[in-house]
Specification:
- The N and C termini lie far apart (32 Å).
- With 212 residues, this protein is of the alpha/beta class.
- Strands 2-1-3-4-12-11-10-7-8 form a nine-stranded mixed sheet. Strands 5-6-9 form a three-stranded mixed sheet, with no helix packed on it.
- The chain is globular and about 40 Å long.
């Protein structure tokens, strides 16, 4: 499979905001953004996203715990408002899962509802899935490759056409989604070597075009 190549030149003319409130891999993500030369600001419940810059929502851990932190800090409504206004949004790991209506991991806990569908648990193999796996592009312009996963759950979108990448772990599953200005990866692009850096560069370039 041909892999995306990350350019070493800075990603210019764009400044983004990264939510530091959902237990995400902030350190590794910020190092990846530094490598790309991207300008970014960390935001949280005390310093809410402005809504004028592309937004990244990384998340790690339990679906219900992440949603509680977002609600307790008033970030849940802010994220929904920003995404609904057309600002580019990137979710990573649980940051993808909370974009949906809910999850089997936390029955009765509502997600952000930006995408229709639910999050379900793997029922075969060793759970969680930890390690490298291939992802197959379902969308022109996004190349297939290998990425790093740490997940027990995966999204099951109501609308199949939002699937950006499909992978397989004993059965096919949704590895990434894209709908309009919303993009999200179940895997960790910041830990997925050159290909993952290329995916972040692709999103940053698209986000820059959206802001022009």
């Amino acid at each position: 499979m041909k892999q995306l190549e990350a350019k070493t030149m800075p990603t210019e003319n764009i400044s983004i905001e990264v939510i530091d409130a959902a237990g995400g891999n902030i350190g590794s993500l910020c190092r990846a953004l530094d490598r790309l030369g991207a300008s970014y600001t960390l935001v949280n419940g005390e310093s809410l996203p402005t809504g004028t810059k592309p937004l990244i929502l990384p998340g790690v851990g339990n679906f219900g715990a992440v949603m509680k932190r977002l609600r307790d800090t008033k970030l849940d409504r802010r994220i929904v408002d920003i995404a609904s206004s057309g600002v580019p949004l990137l979710g990573i790991c649980v940051g993808l899962q909370v974009l949906f209506d809910g999850s089997e991991e936390s029955p009765g806990i509502n997600g952000l509802g930006l995408l229709e569908g639910t999050v379900i648990k793997f029922t075969e193999g060793k759970v969680p899935q930890i390690g490298w796996n291939s992802v197959i592009s379902q969308t022109p312009g996004w190349q297939s490759g290998f990425v790093y996963f740490v997940n027990s759950y995966f999204a099951s979108p109501k609308q199949p056409d939002v699937v950006l990448y499909q992978s397989e772990y004993f059965k096919p599953f949704c590895a990434a989604v894209k709908k309009g200005n919303i993009t999200a990866f179940q895997f960790h692009p910041e830990k997925s070597g050159q290909f993952g850096i290329g995916l972040l560069k692709h999103w940053l370039d698209d986000a820059a075009l959206c802001k022009e």
